């Protein structure tokens, strides 16, 4: 955790000298999330992300992008019993993240291809679990809030890891992008294996 925080701080300091050419951006889109070491029957949990960021040039075709992001994550299962009865379980978690990405720009056509990667630290702020269908004597739908504190908490608050992104930005500022969020911290207290986020994202945005 200390290494991640030091990396974030170093990136902010490095970017501070390039404020004269700073541009700003906003992007949003779809998240497809799962967990590592959480079973082979997982399905993609569909959610969303909204990210505001600054682009701070530090060298030709190279910039640092710190930002603040609202990220929807989680996972989903569906169990089918002989094609007659089944149950769907889903976990939806909202997290506030602070990513700092190093971005390389490659001029191409009417814009630039960009490649980026960097650390993030996130704070899980809310979450729900839902069960729907037929499971033994249960038949119906119910949901409950996740607990992020106390001895019986369902999930840890801190989430940290690495971002990877690829996209294309037109000269008018419009951009499209895809990304991968690789969680590295333990989400589930007292779990035998490291359960962490694995999230694909796809979106559009504008940089001005």
Structure overview:
It contains one helix and ten strands; from the N terminus they run αββββββββββ. The protein is 7% helix and 68% strand. The two termini are 33 Å apart. It has one domain: Porin. Strand 6 and strand 7 form a beta hairpin. The chain is elongated, with a radius of gyration of 19 Å. It is mostly beta strands and 208 residues long. An eight-stranded antiparallel β-barrel has the order 1-3-4-5-6-8-9-10. The longest helix is centred in the first third of the chain and has 15 residues.
Name its key features:
Porin; 208 residues; 8-stranded antiparallel barrel; mainly beta; 7% helix
List the helices and strands and how they pair.
Blueprint: H1 2-16, E1 23-35, E2 42-43, E3 45-59, E4 62-81, E5 85-108, E6 111-135, E7 138-145, E8 158-170, E9 174-183, E10 197-207
